[in-house]
């Protein structure tokens, strides 16, 4: 049986690299994206060139009805879901909290934390063996910011990612006897569009001096950690937060 895995934010960056890693490992994939259809189609073409099936679903992970549709369409087109990568996220804005608009704070918490909770809730419903599902694994994409705090950049984002870590610990315990493992990966500074999306495309260059290894990570540095936590080799690992941050 091929694993059937949903990746939120699968159209770009870490999610896209994870999609290619999982395609090579034999997964069929549902890629959720928010608006960038053409980028999602490029990733889907690469996934299918590795022999995997791939469906694209436009969904905002912070909206319950979109999350329901994401899971329903995936099950209809691919079969029972066995994996979820909660990767969709954004920083949106860089600055001190006192200068950050409330609507930005709400969006950052909604996408990074509430989106992870809503998608994991549906995954628990359909994957739990106690509820008749096939079992599986959830990997949440946290951030090194969860422990560093991201002062003068986005402390509310750091708080949302710390919430993801606590949620990972709790849900791992809740689902431990239901055939579902729950883990997180915490990347450091990674070369993706997230920085330009926050209005600071130069952040990679300005922040790299903080990274002990002296370089930014590539999305391909993060994908194998996510893939390992989803796969059978990590069968006894649940509740872990695996930092992949160049020593940060
Ligand atoms: P990215 O290149 O900006 O890609 C973000 C992805 O999330 C895109 O696929 C985007 O879809 C999707 N997305 C955004 N908002 C969404 C929503 N409301 N609903 C559904 N999808 C949504 O970002 P990235 O750097 O790869 O980040 C991936 C994850 O890694 C995030 O959780 C981020 O917080 C975390 N992270 C990143 C870094 C870093 O330095 N890059 C460091 C630590 C943690 P569209 O393409 O349709 O817009």
Describe the structure.
This protein has about 250 residues and is an alpha/beta fold. It has one domain: Rossmann fold (3-Layer(aba) Sandwich), CATH 3.40.50.720. It is about 45% helix and about 15% strand. It contains 9 helices and 7 strands; from the N terminus they run E-H-E-H-E-H-E-H-E-H-H-E-H-H-H-E. It has helices spanning about 15-25, 35-50, 65-80, 100-125, 145-150, 155-175, 195, 205, 220-230, and strands spanning about 5-10, 30-35, 55-60, 85, 135-140, 180-185, 240-245. It has a 7-stranded parallel beta sheet with strand order 3-2-1-4-5-6-7, sandwiched between helices. Strand 2, helix 2 and strand 3 form a beta-alpha-beta unit. The protein is globular, with a radius of gyration of 17 Å. The termini are far apart. The mean pLDDT is about 100. Bound molecules: NADP nicotinamide-adenine-dinucleotide phosphate.
Question: Mind summarizing the main beta sheet?
Answer: 7 strands, parallel
Secondary-structure class: alpha/beta
Unreliable runs, pLDDT <50, ≥5 residues?
A: none
Mean pLDDT: 98
Order of helices and strands: EHEHEHEHEHHEHHHE
Distance between the termini: 38 Å
The portion of residues forming beta strands comes to 15-25%
Oligomer: single chain
Fourth-tier CATH superfamily name: NAD(P)-binding Rossmann-like Domain
Bound ligands, each once: NADP nicotinamide-adenine-dinucleotide phosphate
CATH topology title: Rossmann fold
CATH architecture: 3-Layer(aba) Sandwich
Total beta strand runs: 7
Side-by-side strand order of the widest sheet = 3-2-1-4-5-6-7
CATH class: Alpha Beta
Radius of gyration of CA atoms, rounded to a whole number: 17 Å
